[in-house]
Design goal:
This protein is an alpha+beta fold. The protein folds into 3 domains: 153 residues, Galactose-binding domain-like (Jelly Rolls, Sandwich), CATH 2.60.120.260; 213 residues; 140 residues, Heat Shock Protein 90. Helix content is 56%, strand content 16%. The chain has 15 helices and 20 strands. It has a 6-stranded antiparallel beta sheet with strand order 3-2-5-11-8-9, with no helix packed on it. Strands 15-17-18-20-19 form a 5-stranded mixed beta sheet. A 4-stranded antiparallel beta sheet has the order 1-13-6-10, covered by helices on one side. Strand 8 and strand 9 form a beta hairpin. Helix 3 runs antiparallel to helix 4.
């Protein structure tokens, strides 16, 4: 079984950051020590009525606090009155009046102390001010307190459970705390931080980062998962809009329907993010999720406000199953692909699942507990961490893309240079082909026209001098034609031609010739090398016949160390001291040396008065083969 890789360092770093942030948040939000003088009130006398005072004639009963209307007053739309009595002790300090703290009142309330109104919500008529998440601290004036038993009446207005999308926004009252104002202020600040400030900060962060990532993914279609994650973050931030807008400019049913309609949109974005991030795209999901986002608000609108909570609960269960299925698909795909993000995504999704389970449990209790409040902070915090991971991956992808682009540009430059070289070579080859065709045409013209005329002169002229010159011109023309045709010559055949010509010419001049060469040589000479070597040998033979006065000449040919070596030596008078200084200007010596140099070889002349002349020609065979 293949070994699974451990979490990469970047994943461990982000997990560590998340744990430290959570630990720091819990430490910073640790509740202040309980006030010794504070009175905890967990029961009250409750009655329904829309009077300005506690309805004395209405049926009343004692209820436990926190009180959830869906349990104590099923189907009631309020208002609901609560009455508690307490004994007021003398304040320890004149500047520390008594205060009443309610950590959860939904939606708005009024407080009366001994029959006098000491607090009234900003909106006690529909649509109510939604103060559900805001801890309420009410100062009790010392002038209204009695020495003995004091009476507190609270009038709470709100909506029944069936008309809201979440139990946390249904009519309810939490347990009450009664004590010195400074101590309850500390507790209120802590509660406000947990229930309002931190969610608002995380929501604002999600809104900004989500908007940025949505734009980033929208314009970069290859990373569409960023756009879906941005939409997920923005949608989740909008779900907390109740923390920012306590008085909505809409009727309550419309506001609840608007918030509930965000759930399928958030699920749409979350499911698509998980699928696209795993590298999968399912057509039926692409079609089904938008239809679901239209069907849910349509069903809620058709059912009416009295069926809002049951339908939202059913839809939320379905949406939760879809999110779980997408998460399982995502983790399974990453596990099989041995993705480096598996461990981080597994940890984040597991933490979100725990947070969702706590929220489901919290929907079953009267009022949200502190554990539920902290669980609500967990999801946006995890989304922020996930966003950091995605931004990190996007940055790495950009760096890799930049490196790939630089490498591609380098390869393009190399390919361009190679194409240019090939084009030049093709151009040169084309020129060589044209030149070769032109050479062959000229050679054919010389052979057919000039050659025929020279041959006619040789056979018809009665002047021996003219006939001899014509024959020499014909031989030179044939040599030139052979050079123009460009056909390579076997070295053994070239030696045979050279031997026949040199020995014949020396014999005609009465000079004894000695030719020494290997019998069978496999090497070949290019046409140019053959022509130039022939002319060098002819020039050397002509010099011996015309200027040396020699009676003997030896020619030695051999191949040694990859070079063709030709040595021509006579026993003539040699070159006089007067002509020694003009060695390169007389007897065609300069021409012979120039021809050898063109073939990357050399031609050396050694001579002295009375010692004859030695001509040494050396040609590298590899150059002689390449010469054209």
């Amino acid at each position: 079984m293949p070994r699974r890789r451990s979490p990469p360092s970047s994943t461990r770093l982000l997990l560590s950051i998340g744990l430290w942030l959570l630990a720091g948040m819990l430490l910073a939000l640790a509740p202040p020590p309980a006030a010794a003088q504070a009175l905890h009130i967990d029961s009250a006398l409750s009655a329904e009525g829309d009077d300005s005072r506690f309805p004395e004639g209405a049926p009343a009963r004692t209820v436990a606090l926190p009180d959830d209307w869906s349990r104590s007053h099923p189907g009631s739309s309020g208002p609901v009155w609560y009455r508690v009595r307490f004994n007021a002790a003398p304040a320890p300090q004149a500047d520390d009046p008594l205060a009443l703290l309610a950590t959860h009142v939904c939606a708005s309330f009024e407080v009366q102390l001994n029959g006098h109104v000491v607090h009234r919500g900003t909106q006690m008529d529909e649509p109510y001010t939604m103060d559900c998440d805001h801890p309420q601290l009410v100062t009790l004036p010392a002038a209204l307190l009695r020495a003995g038993v004091n009476q507190l009446d609270l009038k709470v207005v709100g909506y029944p459970l069936a008309q809201v999308g979440s139990r946390h926004r249904a009519g309810a009252l939490s347990a009450l705390a009664l004590g010195p104002l400074p101590q309850l202020q500390a507790r209120q600040r802590w509660r406000t931080a947990v229930q309002v400030t931190m969610p608002q900060a995380l929501g604002a962060t999600l809104l900004l980062t989500g908007g940025f990532m949505f734009v980033l993914g929208f314009f970069n279609r290859r990373e569409s998962h960023l756009a879906y994650f941005g939409a997920l973050s923005v949608g989740w931030a909008l779900l907390g809009a109740r923390l920012w807008l306590r008085d909505w400019p809409l009727p309550q049913p419309a506001a609840e329907l608007l918030l509930a309609s965000l759930l399928p949109l958030v699920t749409w974005a979350g499911v698509q993010f998980l699928l696209r991030y795993a590298g999968a795209r399912l057509r039926w999901v692409d079609v089904g999720l938008p239809l679901q986002a239209l069907l849910m608000p349509l069903s809620l609108a058709l059912a009416g406000a009295s069926w809002l909570y049951p339908l939202v609960t059913a839809w939320a269960a379905l949406l939760a199953l879809e999110a779980v299925a997408a998460a399982v698909f995502h983790l399974r795909r990453q596990w099989r692909g041995r993705s480096a993000s598996f461990w981080l995504m597994a940890a984040l999704l597991a933490a979100m699942a725990v947070s969702a389970l706590i929220e489901v449990w919290a929907q079953r209790v009267s009022t949200p507990s502190m554990l539920a409040r902290l669980a609500q902070l967990m999801t946006p915090l995890l989304l922020v961490l996930m966003g950091l991971r995605l931004v990190q991956q996007h940055g790495q992808a950009l760096r890799q893309a930049e490196a790939g682009r630089a490498l591609l540009e380098q390869r393009v430059r190399e390919a361009t240079a190679e194409i240019e070289r090939n084009f030049r070579q093709l151009s040169e080859l084309k020129i060589e082909q044209v030149t070769e065709r032109e050479r062959k045409r000229i050679a054919a013209d010389l052979h057919d026209d000039l050659g025929a005329k020279l041959l006619t002169i040789v056979h018809t002229s009665e002047n021996d001098r003219i006939s001899t010159l014509a024959r020499e011109a014909l031989e030179e023309m044939r040599l030139s034609v052979r050079g123009l045709t460009g056909r390579a010559v076997r070295l053994a055949d070239a030696l045979g031609d050279w031997r026949a010509e040199v020995v014949s010419r020396l014999a005609q001049a009465g000079i004894e010739a000695d030719w020494s060469a290997p019998e069978d040589l496999p090497q070949t000479l290019s046409a140019r090398a053959y022509v130039q070597t022939t002319r060098i040998l002819r020039e050397a033979t002509s010099n011996i016949i015309k200027h040396s006065g020699a009676s003997y000449c030896s020619v030695q040919c051999q191949v040694a160390d990859g070079d063709f070596q030709l040595v021509v030596q006579d026993n003539g008078e040699g070159i006089s001291s007067e002509a020694d200084g003009r060695l390169d200007r007389g007897h065609g010596m300069a021409t012979m040396k120039q021809r050898a140099k063109q073939l990357q070889g050399q031609c050396l002349v050694e001579s002295g008065p009375g010692f004859g002349t030695v001509i040494r020609l050396t040609l590298p065979l590899d150059r002689a083969l390449e010469a054209s």
